[in-house]
Amino acid sequence: MTCDGMASLLHALFDGELDAVNAREVETHLVSCSSCASQLRDLRRMRHAMAGPAMRYRAPLGLRQRLESTLPAATSLTARVNPSRRNYALRGFATGSVVSTALAACLLLFVVHQQEEQRIVGDAVSAHLRSLQGHHLVDVQSTDQHTVKPWFNGHLDVAPPVIDLKAQGFTLVGGRVDYLNGGPVAALVYQRGAHVINLFVSPIAASKGGAAMEKRQGLNVRHWARSGLGFWAVSDVDAEELREFGDKFEAAVKNDAR
Amino acid sequence: MISNETPTHESSQAQRFRDAALPHLDAVYTFARYFLRDPADAEDAAQECYLRALRHFDSFRGQDIKPWLFAILRNICHAEFGRRSRVVLYDVNADAEERDPTVPIWQEEQESPETEMLRQSDTQTIQKLVAALPEAFREVIVLREIEGLSYREIAGIVDAPIGTVMSRLARGRAILRDAWFRSAA
Fold it and tell me: Residue B14 in contact with residue A71, Cβ under 8 Å?
């Protein structure tokens, strides 16, 4: 592996965020490459310099005291209201706060849900890029869906539907286990001409959802959901082709089930 | 019977929030200082962060509250202080001279005097250099090196894919390293 391809892997190794296969590869490279090895030494020295408590700031005392006195005060607010006016005050307070809390909760749930979806899309794009850089495109290499599917049975709790779409112009290359949103998921790898399509399949809470297309870092991502499974197709093929891939995949799965 | 139940629920909730969140006040303030590069703004932002976090504590579901606090803080910094701090030109040297007395915490004593001295001078230099980094690199470096968060946690806070976090870290460290060598030369 060249030093160019090594840069971000070297940092990932340094941060303890590299999988075993890539870590071994980078470590092998370090033995023979003095430039990368000295870069790693610099990283260690910088981290050492940044590790001391002097890099941190201590919160001003006034801020700490203000927060300490505010936090319990917020809770005893209702208790401190004059008893004779309490009912009235409470009713108003309760109605107002129920409405606003419900609103805030809905909004927040929506935002959290959106953020989670966005994060998964981000993860899928990162995983796609990693699969192309790290010489780790597939764990099981086969164009035969009857080889790939049983392989997943042994590696994941939920095996994905595996369909060859060679006749439709998308050749199954193989599969591997990857990670989205902190959990292991199935990645099916298809080829379209010189382009690679990673199809990530993971169990999700929402059982059904319309397909959506978005663009991230120059890649197209198509997401859809069916019967408890979420699908994310990532590729540099254009959006129209990726939509076609998604539609053909779904159609073939339905046919296969019959 | 609301009058009895509501305060109990609210106060136990606030108590849980207090126990979980207050121990991270220094960390939150530190992130705010590096992010906003101004002690008074950092103090305001950290306070607003805690008040906002308390209001939304019901919705907090994660294991670790620290990344959640950072995400809230970052939104506050962007929304309310971002415009201002972008206009003000930052003087790296000014910061070192007028540090407020609450800042330095020189306490660590496990190392030999020589390495400790070396580290202290390294640290003073590098603190200035970190503060001078462009925001996109500064925040990932602070979250990774000073707060020790994982790529995944950082990606959640800065709302970017892990791949982007990785490349910003690599780029930020390269800038930092070059600036460090230049300052030592």
Answer: yes
Chain A, nearest residue to B168 by Cα: A8
* Residue pLDDT, tens place only, A197-221: 999 998 887 666 678 888 887 889 9
> For residue A122, which residues of chain B lie inside 8 Å, CB to CB?
155, 160-164
Beta carbons of B179 and B129 less than 8 angstroms apart: yes
| Prediction pTM value | 0.52
Q: Report residue A89 as tokens.
A: 């005050």
Q: Pick the closest to residue B64 from B154, B162, B182 (CA basis).
A: B154
- The two tokens of residue A61 are 């005392």
3-state secondary structure of B53: helix
- The string over B97-112, giving b where at least 16 C-beta atoms fall within 10 Å of a residue's C-beta and e elsewhere, is eeeeeeebeeeeeeee
The single-letter DSSP state of residue B58 is G
Centroid of chain to Cα B166:
18
To the nearest whole Å, the CA of A124 is away from the closest chain B CA by 9
Judge contact between A240 and A214, C-beta under 8 A: no
Query: A235 to chain B nearest CA, in Å?
Result: 15
Q: Is B115 left (phi over 0), alpha (psi -120 to 50) or beta?
A: alpha
Cross-sheet strand order for the sheet of A229-235: A140-141, A171-180, A183-192, A195-203, A229-235, A219-226, A209-216
* Cα–Cα distance for residue pair B141/B66, rounded to 1 Å: 16
Chain B residues with CB under 8 Å of A62 CB are 43
How long a stretch of residues is chain B? 185
User: B144: which 2 tokens?
Assistant: 């990774």
Minimal Cα distance from B159: which residue of A? A119
Q: Which of A10, A19, A45, A50 to mutate to test the interface with B (most CBs of B within 10 A)?
A: A50
Q: What does the pLDDT look like over A104-151, one tens digit per residue? A: 666 666 666 667 777 888 888 888 887 876 557 887 777 888 888 888
Neighbours of A182 (CB within 10 A): 8
